[in-house]
Amino acid sequence: MTMSDTPQSGAPLIQMTDVGKSYGAIRALKGINLRVNAGEVACVLGDNGAGKSTLIKIMAGLHAHTEGTLVVEGVEKHYESPRQALEDGIATVYQDLAVVGLMEVWRNFFLGSELVRSKIPLASMSIRDMKAIADAELRKMGIVVKDLDQPISELSGGQRQCVAIARAVYFGAKVLILDEPTAALGVKQSGVVLKYVAAARDAGLGVVFITHNPHHAYMVGDHFVILKLGQAVLDKKRDEVTLDELTRQMAGGDELAELSHELQQLGGRTEAIRTVVQDTRRRR
Amino acid sequence: MSQGYASSAPAEDSNRVKLGWSNRLLARPEVGAAVAAAAIFVFFLVVAPAFRSPDAFFTILYQASTIGIVAVAVGLLMIGGEFDLSAGVIVTSAGLFNALFCYYLGINLIVGAVLSLVFSLAIGFINGYLVMRTGIPSFLITLGSFFILQGVNLGVTKLVTGAVASPNISQMDGYGALKAIFAGSFDVAGVTVWNSVIYWLAFVGLAAWILQRTRLGNWIYAVGGNAASARAVGVPVVRVKIGLFMAVSFLGWFVGMHTLFRFNTLQAGNGVGNEFLYIIAAVVGGTLLTGGFGNALGVAIGAFIFGMTSLGIVYAGWDPNWFRAFLGVMLVLAVLVNLYVKKLSTARKVG
Q1: A252's torsion region: left (phi>0), alpha (psi -120 to 50) or beta?
Q2: Which of A40, B56, B267, B334 lies 20 to 30 angstroms, CA to CA, from B349?
Q3: Are A83 and A180 in the same domain?
Q4: Is residue A2 part of a domain?
């Protein structure tokens, strides 16, 4: 499973160099380097508040970066709105705001990219075509909705994520950014979503997969970046890192060892702490 | 339902459920209002003999149109997830602006009408811009503009005319043409039909077209249902919402023109309280208070219910003071019906 490092004909889809972001006096992100190639899954892991959201918001055009450079297919970019990012083929699927719950499935599928009959203001949408396309695209992903006219909130969480992914793929995304697509899902539904992550990768898209679950990341990832307090603490290719190492880093790694050491000195050594201490020693 | 996917070939609609017409019907926002409207109509037919003539019917339509025109835009705005409490006084402001401006400077009323339109659109723009720019709920921003306009209406009128009503405009230039456009009427088989009824139906049709068939309609539902999602997929949320506020002030101006040219003079204190009638028409018509759900036909039926009850009570010979109590009951009932219908229509997913 070593598909990383395949020589690219052109420039990488996204190349972030030393990117940082400050909100006023608060520095949310600093010195991030990230490269997204076609046909690869780049995983960004991190705890809550590590800067994952800020990182994707920069790529998705919701917030502009304040330091470093963002190069998309060889051209330096500074996105001011999501529309600009979308025009460059960068589509983002958010965990919680992927779809508009009260709207019909087909309306959601085409939201923001509706098919219109002409450029005249208030021209009719091609509703029949839109429904047919939405149906066909969803079937390709193995989702058969009972009724395209039902509100999308009636679908399961996994299906909603898949609709959002199918939508991004259909509208010619080159880069697919997935914000914790499996965080709120059960095991089976997560599996469904991971399958489509792999499918998107095999279709030649560059995927940025944001998660705090190292197991999910390791199943599909080619490249892993772990963020902590706005900085990258690990940046490795798949063949340079093990699932164990990812898990340990995500669980707090060195800080956990330090904590157990401190607790030891306080004399509060219990069975649980002993286990942790032994565990971290063994791993070193 | 078997879940066997015929993996690649887009198989026949094997597990596609064709919902029964009753389910489809119940899922529509205006159904509750339509049932209520039919019940009220029959009720007044029975208790009020004066209610039964075609003349009375068109009077009801006229009464409904005076609220219904602005209510169309208020409904769109509410589907888009915002409120406008200044919608009632903006009608009066637009009319007063035209009358006072032309009276004071002695210019043609048509010029005044155009400037009044610009003025009204500017108020809508400021409402929308402030809401979008500050993130303060539209309820508060427009509550502010409601009070500002109410005060300005009275203050400026007093300043210009020394009284609390605008001067009579019927002798001023441009009166005839504008009267014919905004407050004209014609006879059909001996029944008087006001232009405003036609305009109302046209605006309802336009709003229905926009919501159901156009990209803009998709965007209106989206910004009301989930503005953050809409923005993330490239919907210009700020522009859509500001546009909706401006649509309200545009139709407010339209009705302001109608009122001015119908009565030739305006009381500066008019319009206060009408903003709630618009909201009631929208909510009775199945518009969700939190945005993202509703349609134009429902709002029209809501306004029709308003017209029927406000005149039905008079035709029945009752004390019209009861009208507001009746309207309040209607509102509560409508909310309950909407809730019930919502539950029914979401229960269908088991099917």
Answers
A1: left
A2: B334
A3: yes
A4: no
Residue A180: per-residue pLDDT: 84
Residues of B in contact with A103 (CB under 8 A): 218, 221-222, 225, 292
Q: How many domains does chain B have?
A: 1
B216 interfacial to chain A (CB closer than 8 Å):
yes
A7 within some domain: no
Comparing B6-10, B125-129, B162-166, B269-273, the range with the smallest average pLDDT is: B6-10
- Residue A88 in any domain: the answer is yes
In a domain, B137, yes or no: yes
pLDDT in tens, B284-316: 998 988 889 999 999 999 999 999 988 998 898
Q: How many Cα atoms within 13 Å fall on the side-chain side of residue B241?
A: 31
Q: Do B218 and A111 touch (CB under 8 A)?
A: yes
- Tell me which residue range forms the domain holding B234: 53-345
Q: How far apart are CA B142 and CA B249, in angstroms?
A: 12
Question: Do A191 and A268 share a domain, yes or no?
Answer: no
Angstrom distances, CA of residue B3 to CA of A144, B6, B325? 9, 10, 53
Reported as a single tens digit per residue, the pLDDT across A86-102 is 888 888 888 765 688 88
Tell me, yes or no, whether B9 lies in a domain: no
The closest CB to that of B15, out of A112, A136, A144, belongs to A144
A198 and A77 co-located in one domain: yes
Say yes or no: A170 contacts chain B, CB-CB below 8 A: no
Query: What are the residues facing A16 on neighbouring strands?
Result: A34, A70
B351 inside 8 A of chain A by CB:
yes
- Choose from B24, B233, B349 for mutation: most chain A CBs within 10 A: B233
Nearest-CA neighbor of B175 among B116, B120, B108, B118?
B108
Residues A213 and A267 in one domain: no
- Predicted confidence band at A5 (pLDDT cuts at 50, 70, 90)? very low
Query: Is the pLDDT score of A152 beyond 90?
Result: no
Q: Into how many domains does chain A fold?
A: 2
- Partner A contacted by B23 (CB < 8 A): no
Residue B97 lies in a domain: yes
If DSSP codes are grouped into helix, strand and coil, which group holds residue A65?
coil
Q: Which residues of chain A lie closer than 8 angstroms to B221, CB-CB?
A: 100, 102-103, 107
Q: Which of B15, B229, B288 sits opposite A98 (nearest CB)?
A: B229
Residues B258 and B185 sit within 8 Å (Cβ to Cβ): no
Which pLDDT band, with edges at 50, 70 and 90, does A274 fall under? low
Q: What pLDDT is recorded for position B148?
A: 97
Alpha-carbon distance of A35 to A15, in angstroms, equals 5
Residue of B nearest to A125 (CA): B214
Q: Closest Cα of chain B to A97: distance in Å?
A: 5
Say if residue A189 is in the same domain as residue A281: no
Q: Is residue B40 part of a domain?
A: no
Range in A16-25, B76-85, B103-112 with the lowest mean pLDDT: A16-25
Q: Which residues of A touch B225 (CB under 8 A)?
A: 100-103
Contact B79, B247 (CB under 8 A): no
Q: What range does the domain containing A54 cover?
A: 14-245
Contact indicator for A252, A18 with CB cutoff of 8 Å:
no
Q: Does B233 touch chain A (CB under 8 A)?
A: yes
Q: Within this chain, do residues A136 and A272 fall inside the same structural domain, yes or no? A: no
Note whether A97 contacts B209, CB cutoff 8 Å.
no
For residues A49 and A177, state if they share a domain: yes
Q: pTM of this prediction?
A: 0.81
Q: Are residues A261 and A162 in the same domain?
A: no
Q: Is the ipTM of this complex over 0.85?
A: no
